[in-house]
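Query structure, 244 tokens:
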């Protein structure tokens, strides 16, 4: 289904301030705001980690950036199959419909950055322990917890569609990449489409995020995800060196 299709379909299905029922799942109308509000301070902490400051300051070295992408690839390689396994679930079907998958883009960036050699060194430089724990968490949720997977999709894809968009030119500049090479990860098809996707994701949360009990579960899992990202970034920061 096209992005526009998902967007308009979810909009037209909305009755303002009315709970929406998708199959057997009823969703509080203010859920998107609540989720954002209740993860705000963790978002700020993640944003202010040394690794993110290095990245946004354009001071991350190529090896450190490769390492970050490899860890993100491991995360998405656990998240995306887990979501696709439950692609027909009413909570996850709209996410799948947005076609946000990032694995191919991450692999393309790793190739463009010449990180293949590093990938081959994985046995001597394993993924961060926090990444491994995150992957295990996601694998444990596959097939069992669509609401928790929605939380992880929210943290990753909404992050990529929002703050992530600022990073593409910074990364390209810091690593002296020609054109868009090496920044496919941030590319969702142009600014307009990216904004539409972020709006559609927000809409699916507003219209599709569960009864109060499920809503609490999603929020708790999103908080766990942010906290685990912070641990992962702190671990990766120990190895990251500013570019000369
Ligand atoms: C360089 C660091 C970062 C910057 C500058 C940044 C910036 C932003 C900005 C400007 C927004 C839009 C806020 C709004 O609509 O009011 C946003 C949203 C978001 N970011 Fe970040 N961010 C960063 C890192 C992260 C990280 C590391 C994650 C996840 C681990 C993340 C997850 C999110 C999410 C989930 C949203 C959507 C919030 C919502 O509308 O519900 N961000 N970010």
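Result returned for the query:
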């Amino acid at each position: 289904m096209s992005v526009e299709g998902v967007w308009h379909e979810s909009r037209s299905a909305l009755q303002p301030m009315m709970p929406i029922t998708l199959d057997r799942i009823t969703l509080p109308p203010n859920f998107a705001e609540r989720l954002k509000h209740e993860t705000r301070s963790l978002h700020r902490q993640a944003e202010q980690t040394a690794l993110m400051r290095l990245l946004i300051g354009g001071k991350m070295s190529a090896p450190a950036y490769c390492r970050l992408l490899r860890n993100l690839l491991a995360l998405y390689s656990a998240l995306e199959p887990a979501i696709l396994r439950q692609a027909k679930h009413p909570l996850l079907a709209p996410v799948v419909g947005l076609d946000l998958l990032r694995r191919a883009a991450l692999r393309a960036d790793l190739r463009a950055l010449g990180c293949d050699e590093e990938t081959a060194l994985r046995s001597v430089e394993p993924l961060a322990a926090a990444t491994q724990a995150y992957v295990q968490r996601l694998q444990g949720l596959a097939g069992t917890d669509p609401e928790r997977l929605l939380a992880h999709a929210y943290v990753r894809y909404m992050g990529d569609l929002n703050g992530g968009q600022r990073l593409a030119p910074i990364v390209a500049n810091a690593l002296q990449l020609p054109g868009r090479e090496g920044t496919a990860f941030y590319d969702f098809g142009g600014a307009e489409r990216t904004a539409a996707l972020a709006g559609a994701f927000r809409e699916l949360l507003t219209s599709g995020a569960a009864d109060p009990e499920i809503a609490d579960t999603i929020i708790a899992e999103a908080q766990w995800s942010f906290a685990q990202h912070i641990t992962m970034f702190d671990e990766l920061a120990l190895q990251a060196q500013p570019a000369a």
